[in-house]
Specification:
318 residues, 0% strand, single chain, globular, mainly alpha
């Protein structure tokens, strides 16, 4: 990572690389486009985020889940201290937050999103859902902004918006799977609009109505994707390529869901390997078009001093 790192950090990196390869082929593919140091740091963050998600995986609610989230918060706070860490993901977190100056607020906010899962929180309105998406995914975009560095702090809002867009896509893909575990992410007022009882979200007879709500959710996601696109200019060329690749693959999941309609949840929606490669090529082409402007204004990072502490009710770019 540009300079020798301790053996325990190198071991943590190997563990996190394995986690991203096993846990997300899409992110693993996109990460290859980063410069080596940025790619390693992204793996460190992914490993910690995956660990957080695993702590609340399973049925919502129950004191055990809440206790696991509290333990996660305590370990994360310890990683921001000088105390030596023993678990690979917390060795990774401690290393990356020190190296890139990531504020403690972002990982703690992400853990609060995990707590919402542990408590089995319902979301009455879309604005309520946005708070959850900001916490569990917008904050990841903000942490990655510190890793990738930016030419202007104004891009932080675009980074959060892209994370929100990806989380909305995740929610659309996993509606019935999540419902089986007692997690309903669709806004309850949306369910009321089409007459789907909360307890029947995953029922086969509701699939046509569910497809309508999914299109509505994906329409909202598209607005946030467009804001994320506007943020690519603020990244270095290689970082922009990596982020654009991940964005295109994730957005494609939404397009597949739209095409499948009421059959979207008959099997898990995925993007084929061949299609992913084509999407990566499209992403590279889109970023390459910015080269003349990048030559006219060479990329140079600024020190990020802002900490965004509130979710965004509207995407920055429409």
């Amino acid at each position: 990572m540009g300079e020798p790192i301790p053996a325990e950090v190198r071991a943590a990196l190997d563990e996190c690389r394995w986690m991203i390869h096993k846990g997300s082929k899409s992110f693993s593919l996109a990460a290859r486009l980063f410069e080596p140091e940025t790619r390693d740091a992204a793996c460190f963050l992914y490993g910690w985020c995956r660990y957080c998600d695993d702590q609340v995986d399973g049925p919502a609610g129950g004191p055990a889940a809440v206790e696991r989230v509290q333990a996660l918060k305590d370990k994360t706070m310890a990683a921001f201290s000088s105390a030596p860490q023993n678990e690979p993901v917390f060795i990774a977190l401690q290393h990356v937050v020190r190296r890139y100056g990531i504020p403690a607020h972002y990982p703690l906010e992400l853990i609060e999103g995990m707590a919402m899962d542990a408590r089995g929180t319902d979301y009455r309105t879309f604005e309520d859902l946005l708070l959850y998406c900001y916490r569990v995914a917008g904050t990841v975009g903000l942490m990655m902004s510190h890793v990738m560095r930016l030419r202007d702090q104004a891009a932080l809002k675009h980074a959060a918006d892209l994370g929100i867009a990806m989380q909305l896509t995740n929610i659309a893909r996993d509606i019935t799977e999540d419902a089986a575990m007692g997690r309903i992410y669709l806004p309850l007022d949306w369910l009321d609009d089409v007459g789907i009882p909360r307890a029947r979200v995953a029922a086969p007879e509701q699939r046509e109505r569910l497809a309508l709500l999914t299109r509505r959710l994906l329409d909202e996601a598209e607005r946030y994707y467009r804001s994320g696109d506007a943020g690519l200019w603020y990244l270095s060329f290689r970082s922009a390529c990596a982020v654009a690749a991940a964005r295109h693959v994730y957005a494609e999941i939404g397009r597949v869901l739209r095409r499948r309609g009421a059959r979207a949840w008959d099997s898990r929606t995925h993007v084929s390997a061949a299609r992913k490669l084509r999407l990566v090529a499209l992403a590279l082409a889109s970023v390459t078009r910015s080269i003349p402007a990048r030559w006219a204004r060479p990329w140079s990072p600024v020190v990020i001093r802002t900490v965004l502490k509130t979710p965004f009710r509207e995407p920055i770019a429409r």
